[in-house]
Each structure stands twice: as structure tokens, then as C-alpha cells.
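Now for today's protein.

===
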Amino acid sequence: MLPEQVEVCADLHLRPYYGDKDDTDGLYHSEAKRGTTAFHAYATLYVRVQNKRYTLAVRRLTDGDTASSVLAEFLGILDGLDAEVKAVYLDREFYDSKCLMLLQAHNHAYVMPIIRWGQTIKQELSEGWSRVIQHDLTAKLDGHS
């Protein structure tokens, strides 16, 4: 039984695969991290209730899955909850323009770390911690920017 308002968390997990390169069928392939491009990958969605974690969904990632496609599925699950979503906490793997547009479309408050891409955001983040930053992250999604 969930309370009337819940805080929701979503994480993407990439566990490196260091085995035989011929045995990577069914694994998730991504940019090289920790010396490999093949990963056992999954996403989790859970709620926090009184500082306890209750898992709502676990999803295996396969090649072709994106952070935004996983987030779209998870937001669909949240729309089906009887509880109101107070806030969504996401890990840094969800930091892209498509995910931000999805969160805005579903009208959820959210928190996610900013990845320091580009000189402008690096400069903004190097000037201190406590302030509001205006930063544009642009892309096209279904003809909208």
C-alpha cells in the first residue's frame, strides 16, 4: 500500500562484461567504459517510502534501447499508480534532451545530476554551488525542439 504521495527513483545499471567477444549476443553495447563496450544492463524503478526502497519495475536493456525509451515506459507505469508522484529522482544516464522533454510532458518535478558537457556548462558549474543556472539543452523529438 503506497501513501498518497511518493518519491520515485529510476536508475540505469551497466555491469561490464569482460568475457569472450564472440559471446556478447544479448548483451547491451554502449560507449567504451571500464575497458569494454559490452554490458549486462538493466533499469530499475522504485519508490521511497519512509527511507525504504520498494521496487516497482526491473527492465533488462537490449541493443537499441535508449534512456528515453526506458523512461517513457517507466513514466507510463507511474501514470498508472494510485499515488501522486511528488518527485522523480534520476541518475545521470537520463541526462539528455529527450528525457527532459518526457519529464516536462508528464509534468513531474524531477532531480538529476548535470553532466559537464561543453565549455559553457563547465564554466557555469565552476563558479560555485548555490545559484540558479539557465542552460539550454536542445534537440528535436517528433518534430518539436
